[in-house]
Amino acid sequence: MELLSPSIGLLFWMTITFLVVLFLLWRFGFPVITGMVKERQAFIDDSLRKAHEANERLANIQKESESILQEAREKQAQILKEAAETRDAIVEKAQDKARQEGARLLEDARVAITGEEGCHCRYPQASSYAQCRDCREGSSSEPPRRQGTDGSHRPYAG
Fold first, then answer.
1. Could you tell me where the DSSP H helices lie in the chain?
2. List of long-range contacts for 99-105, beta carbons under 8 Å, 24+ apart
3. Torsion angles phi and psi, residue 153, rounded to 5
4. Whole-angstrom distance, CA of residue 74 vs CA of residue 78
5. Which positions ≥6 away from 93 have C-beta within 8 Å?
6. CA–CA dist 124, 128 (Å, integer)
7. CB 144 within 8 A of CB 158
8. Is 155 helix (H, G, I), strand (E, B) or coil?
9. 8 A C-beta contact, residue 158 and residue 114
């Protein structure tokens, strides 16, 4: 039963030992432990701050890349629009040239078949040189000349 009811001497030495260990820990152990905890807390706070800054920089880089990408898309659309306009202009020019060449070939064929030349002065409704009032009354008896595709003036073929 001695363990259940300790003696006064045992209590005294246990109290002295506890106070010595408490003093040693208070003097040498706790400052080191609290310093390490504060150091660890500062490291964690610094890491969180750096992570937050990195997230902000990443967000800024993403915004910048999106704006650059949007600008590139706009430039692409503009280039495609200009290319389409150029293509349309080239196609229209080629079609006009083909129409003119077709009309010239038709006129040459008509003249070759009928033997009459159409008058191409102010009265396009006149179907021949003889029916055109200006050409009948006109200053010359020669049919009008047309400029060819090579730049030379030649009379209508007949």
1. 8-24, 30-114, 133-137
2. 101/149, 104/149
3. -95, 130
4. 6
5. none
6. 9
7. no
8. strand
9. no
Q: What digits encode the pLDDT tens for the residues 33-89?
A: 999 999 999 999 999 999 999 999 999 999 999 999 999 999 999 999 999 999 999
Q: What is the pLDDT of residues 80-124, one digit of tens each?
A: 999 999 999 999 999 999 999 999 999 888 888 887 655 555 545
| Three-state secondary structure call for residue 147 | strand
> CA–CA distance from 140 to each of 14, 124, 126, 129 (Å)?
146, 19, 17, 12
* C-alpha to C-alpha distance for 43 and 47, rounded to whole angstroms: 6
CA distance 11 to 16: 9
pTM of the model: 0.42
| Coil, strand or helix at 145 | strand
CB 85 within 8 A of CB 79: no
For residues 155 and 146, give the distance between their C-alpha atoms in angstroms, rounded to a whole number. 6
